[in-house]
Design a protein that fits this description.
Radius of gyration: 18 Å
Largest sheet: 8 strands, mixed
Strand order of the largest sheet: 3-2-1-4-5-6-7-8
CATH architecture of one domain: 3-Layer(aba) Sandwich
Structural class: alpha/beta
Mean pLDDT: 94
Shape: globular
Distance between the termini: 47 Å
Strand content: 5-15%
Number of strands: 8
Number of helices: 9
Length: about 280
């Protein structure tokens, strides 16, 4: 075990923004970068492709929806390195606008991947975080809380007093509403992706407050908007390259020791702090 080598882990990283993030970290991070992916073959192929570009990353299998897979990664990192210094929660999913999958199924799956499974990754890997660690949750412009309809649900997500248990219940309530077909009437709106990313950003704010009470100094947790990126998830309609979409994640991952700002903040694709609670929701693409 080498506990003196800094360690970075990027989830969902065999393609798109995740792969571009790993590539940038290989160039800028002083330590070992782990590219993780569900599919072993695709993950190893991505690492091999980086090697051909003169960049060194390591691969470890990770399916964030499988607790056993997360535990295997946790145990490996603990045994091999004794800790973790950078965690970028990039893994996520979205259904296309033309998807024929029933809305209720979309809601359950999207919340499970983008919120619940990411939360499970954090619960299992956060104990490994060392002093001065950086955590990045990849959200979206669609994750701005004012992207939800005005009303009680939006106010609950935006509340500074929101607890983790209350946030989990909100996501469960959304799935229940979706199964009943009452998600609009109940105040959640009609986008599973929006709700999942609002929930992820709300989670970041809760995690930030907890980090301020942590005995390990200088753990910084932020959420970022990569922008509208040309990836499979956007059906290649995005206007930014994956490399441009990785900029905010890499910036937040490499914040220097003693950083006061950003902390618990929502960063744009240009690494500018956005007002997650009060900024009016509008799309520029």
């Amino acid at each position: 075990m080498n506990s003196f080598t800094r360690i970075a882990v990027v989830t969902g990283a065999n393609k798109g923004i995740g792969l571009a993030t790993v590539k940038a970290l290989c160039q800028q991070f002083d330590g070992i970068v782990y590219l993780t992916a569900r599919d072993v073959g695709r993950g190893q192929a991505a690492v091999e492709d980086l090697s051909k570009q003169g960049l060194t990353a390591k691969f470890h299998q990770l399916d964030i929806t499988d607790e056993g897979s997360i535990i295997k990664l946790r145990d490996y990192l603990k045994a091999e390195h004794g800790g973790l210094d950078v965690l970028i929660n990039n893994a996520g999913m979205a259904y296309g606008f033309k998807s024929t999958v029933p809305f209720a199924e979309q809601a359950e799956n999207t919340i499970n991947v983008n919120f619940t499974s990411t939360l499970n990754v954090c619960k299992l890997l956060f104990p490994l975080l060392r002093p001065h660690s950086r955590v990045v949750n990849v959200s979206s412009t669609l994750g701005l809380v004012k992207g939800l309809p005005a009303g009680e649900v939006r106010d609950k997500f935006a509340s500074e007093a929101l607890t983790l248990d209350e946030l989990i219940k909100l996501t469960q309530d959304f799935v229940t509403s979706a199964k009943a077909g009452t998600q609009v009437q109940d105040g959640f709106g009609n986008s599973t992706y929006k709700v999942s990313k609002v929930a992820l950003s709300a989670l970041t704010r809760i995690q930030h407050k907890e980090s301020l009470k942590d005995s390990r100094p200088d753990i910084v947790i932020n959420h970022v908007d990569p922008g509208y990126v040309d990836t499979d998830m956007s059906n290649h309609n995005g206007i930014l390259t994956p490399e441009q979409g990785a900029v905010s994640s890499v910036y937040a991952a490499l914040l220097p020791p003693g950083t006061e700002k950003p902390r618990g903040d929502f960063l744009s694709e240009k690494c500018e702090i956005r007002d997650w609670v009060n900024e009016e929701f509008k799309l520029s693409f």
